Amino acid sequence: MTGPSTVVAGALVGLMLGVGLVLISGFLPWLRRRDLAARVDPYLRRAAGSALLDASPSSSRARLVVENLLGPVAQHALGLLERLTGGAEQLEKRLRLAGRRSSVDSFRIEQVVFSAIGLVIGLGVALAAIGLRGTSPLMGLLIVAIGVVLGVLLRDYLLTMEIKRRASRMAREFPTVADLLALAVAAGESPIGAMERVARSSTGALPDEFAATVADIHAGTGVAPALAALGTRTPLTALARFGEGVSVAIERGTPLADVLRAQAQDARESAKRDLMETAGRREVVMLVPVVFLVLPLVIVFAIFPGLAVLEIAL
């Protein structure tokens, strides 16, 4: 390393060390004032199974360890991240659409962890660029900032992909589940009993949502509000129409089995239309290698013999 690059690298390392010492000293018990929640917490009585009910079944042990280690530090960055990335209500809705039971703060902590990983990667790239290519320190700071922003955006993109994958799974499951509901209702089951039977005998994202809807109804929620909530917490538009159609059929006394069969048929027709649209888009994409690879080779093979004959004649 040259002289300026060594000074810049030392300054960055010293900055990281100073920030770490400040964070550590800020979380020492004898240097910070206990808030009201911490003082009242030992006197509160909790239910034995509350933690099990609030915890997500898909939470891994490694993720819990990371959240416990980085959670106190990440809490201070949640306010800034809230102001930069939007409101908590929209994020909570997206988490429910993805089927996640975690809180908004938990997702914010994951975003902070991803931004910290981006910070480390950006810092490594910046040090390599400064040491090997003599890049200016300002460009190095820009690389670090880009790494932090990309880390936050990557976590948001992964959440969007989770929503899309869950919507595609529900779209595949919905026609079969609607047929099962129609068979159960035609056999004499009530609509809620049919949903409970399907949720108990099937596996997948859609039966899990039916189980949550049945639990809400058993807890005292009305049938129409529970079915409306089923449509709002799922990314599938057909499921919202399903909940509305079932609630209207129950209120007006329409034969529910026919309504469910019609819903299943509509879902299959919608899947066929989506498949045709996807095939049309793929057909356009397939033209790219044909136009830019195959067609130039055909032209070369067609013209080259004529050019060779002309050169021989000349």
Automatic annotation (TrEMBL):
Keyword Glycoprotein appears in the UniProt entry: no
Cellular compartments annotated: Cell membrane
Membrane topology annotation: Multi-pass membrane protein
Residue ranges of domain Type II secretion system protein GspF in the record: 178-302
Domain of life: Bacteria
Major subcellular location class: membrane
Transmembrane segment boundaries: 6-31, 112-132, 138-159, 284-310
Species whose genome carries this gene: Brachybacterium rhamnosum
Annotated keywords: Cell membrane, Membrane, Transmembrane, Transmembrane helix
Protein name per its UniProtKB record: Type II secretion system F family protein
Coiled coil feature spans: none
InterPro entries noted in UniProt: T2SS_GspF_dom (IPR018076)
